[in-house]
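Annex B.
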Amino acid sequence: MKLLTRMTKARLFRLSVVVGSVFMILLIIVYWDNVGTAHFYLHSSFSGHREVLPTVVKGDGRGSLSDVDEFLEKLLTTDLRSRADRKTEQPPLQASSRPVVGTLEENVRGYDWSSHDAGTMLDQEKIQAERRETLRALCANSSFAFPTKNRSFEDIPNYELNHLIVDDRHGIVYCYVPKVACTNWKRVMIVLSESLLDQGVPYADPLNIPRKHVHNTSTHFTFNKFWHRYGKFSRHLMKIKLKKYTKFLFVRDPFVRLISAFRSKFELENEEFYRLFAIPMLKLYSNLSSVPTSVSEAFKAGLRVSFSDFIQYLLDPRTEKVAPFNEHWRQVYRLCHPCQIEYDFIGKLETLDEDAAHLLQLLKVDHLLRFPPSYRNRTASSWQEDWFAKIPMAWRQELYKLYEADFVLFGYPKPEHLLKN
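Carbohydrate sulfotransferase 12: predicted structure tokens.
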């Protein structure tokens, strides 16, 4: 009888443990749905559905947590909280007197340190509303189709979420697009999230961060890393952050972005891009059976990929069969999923200075940093006719079809002058 009683108690204990575990999981899910992640208050005034968390920010900027909150914090956001606890007060930052020039590309291109008259600021709120509405309308328009448009967020493979950088301190998600000021925006995200230390102290000035660290994938906490940290909760937490955080990206005229990518990756000596892309292009489109194994040897011999070679490579159906487009020329809709993610702010490189200043104000971080100055000789739209002069009309039209979604979604006019005889 005693044995039966002990067995019954043991079963009841196990049952209570199971029920308690299920209850805690449900509590976690409800908690995250209602208040988001990690008690970070949001610095956004973009849309009415966002909630400002009811915490009193004092001292180190974090409100007091209840016992339940502390438990949930430890359970799901141990790493994030440990970083936040290291946060120290920072004085208002001043723009650097000059940038750190660490690569040939930055040396060649230079920086524009000219001041910009605040009186020339455009009506940013109206502009942003128009850009968001254009995007939403086109994503809802069934007559406008492009690959991956109609899939859900859950259908996006994890490896395609590697461009979404998260800053939990300030409630920000940034989708970076290469060749659209992404180096400096990544620097800004590093400063805000304090994800990189210099001699034990977080970087305070974006331009002090070496370029080699800026593009190191281990530096940034991106959506594709959620699975390793949160396991089966990862997609659920992504959706919560997308709902509650401020999401932004910067875009650029697609053809001009291609020219910029070609200039930086093939007109300058870049060993990685020479080995992975230039050698195959030279063999396939310049009919060379043998090419130098290093970029320095190739440049000395006068062997360089032409812009025509590059366009042929993009249009060649064999290219995508081998591997997806490199991020520097991959379409924005494939990098940032604008029909699956409702972006709050859409900046453009063509209005970078005004857009960047406005965004930092809206995020309420403009007292912490300033956006680094833009490049002096940024690839200009007016150069398109010269660059495409030797590209056959049929290729131009096919190239437009390849990037048409980016043109239309982000409000860039169709370059008729390049597509008609």
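The chain has 19 helices and six strands. The radius of gyration is 25 Å. Further annotation is deferred to the next reporting cycle.
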